[in-house]
Amino acid sequence: MGNLLKLQNLTDTEMEVMQVIWKMNKAVKSSELLDIFSEKGWKGQTIATFLSRLVDKGLLSVTREKGRINIYSPCLTFKEYKKKEAKSLLDTMYQGSVKTFLVTLYGDKVTDDELDELKDWFSDK
């Protein structure tokens, strides 16, 4: 599946491209992406650069059809991406501790009802 360790390095624009591809939920021709992003004022070379970066980062695979048509397919779903991104953040910033993450994020702002919901959720795991 390529260099999935680099997932946290996606730029906002790379994420925008991936979200369009994930939303389409199919293999996508470069010409289809050009149609979509040219409406935003992007040039073909700009789109090609971002697609190449996403292939290098392991998020897209590319196959070449007859001529110069590239077809891009996501290497993982958005759900899988979010899970890997969250795990990477948790491991890197919080030594894998969900408790440390939650305390940092919410501190004493968690209501008793939310605590009860979390307890129920964790007890089911």
Give the H and E element order: HEHHEEHHH
Based on CA atoms alone, the radius of gyration comes out at 19 Å
Going across the major beta sheet, what is the strand order?
Answer: 1-3-2
* Number of helical regions: 6
Question: Biggest sheet, open or closed, and with what strands and sense?
Answer: 3 strands, antiparallel
Low-confidence sequence ranges: 1-6
Mean pLDDT: 86
Question: N-to-C terminal Cα separation, in Å?
Answer: 28 Å
In one word, what is the shape?
elongated
Helix residue percentage: 55-70%
Number of strands: 3
- In CATH terms, the superfamily of the largest domain is Winged helix-like DNA-binding domain superfamily/Winged helix DNA-binding domain
CATH class of the largest domain: Mainly Alpha
Strand content: 5-15%
**CATH fold type of the largest domain:** Arc Repressor Mutant, subunit A
Structure description:
With 125 residues, this protein is mainly alpha-helical. Helices cover 58% and strands 10% of the residues. The chain has six helices and three strands. It has helices spanning 12-24, 30-38, 44-56, 78-94, 98-106, 112-123; strands at 28-29, 60-64, 70-74. A three-stranded antiparallel beta sheet has the order 1-3-2. The longest helix has 17 residues, at 78-94. The two termini are 28 Å apart. 10% of the residues are buried. Residues 1-6 have low confidence and may be disordered.
